[in-house]
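User: structure tokens for this one?
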Amino acid sequence: MGGQNIRALVVAYTVAFGLVLSLVLAMPIHAQGHTAPYAHVVAEKIAALIAPRYLLMGTNGRSVTSEDFRGRLQLIAFGFVSCPDVCPTTLLEMSHVLSAMGARAQHLQPIFITVDPQRDTAQVLGAYIQGFDARILGLTGPIDLVRRAAENFKVQFAKVQEPGANPDVYTMDHTSGMFLLGPDGSLVAKFGYGAPVAEVSERVQYWLDVAGK
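Assistant:
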């Protein structure tokens, strides 16, 4: 089999896995397994492939890890400050989810992890997040730690630069969507880009109910 055919198969399998992961994790999952028990089992097996862990730096310069939010839900997205549309849309959706939850929003920590730490310093990221909702936590850090966090979430990103362009002139390709972590830090849902606010809010409220929050 030729090299091009092999690469095509790899791409096809990768895309298919991503679609299956998004669809299965979007299925209704109930704690006792009374509804859609098979979906529950499959979702758990696929979610087990993702280890949503990170060790990064907040906009205040302090280290932040996934363990810091035990007992709370986390809604996490990856992106970058100079992103023209996908990232600001996702952050706006996070803000709307927080508003829709009212007082229960205190049990949810929304997080935006930059995939462009070269430009997105703590100061730059902090100012950017403030434009959406102060409750959203921006995280950055050394590129190795950012890459490790992305790998843990099965998130891909890459710098895209025109030949001959200034080294500081580039954009970033990255996996979009949001990840919802439960109180124990495990992945409980993944939302594709542009998922309705009502759908995300409903899922968050469900897991808060499960956790007795």
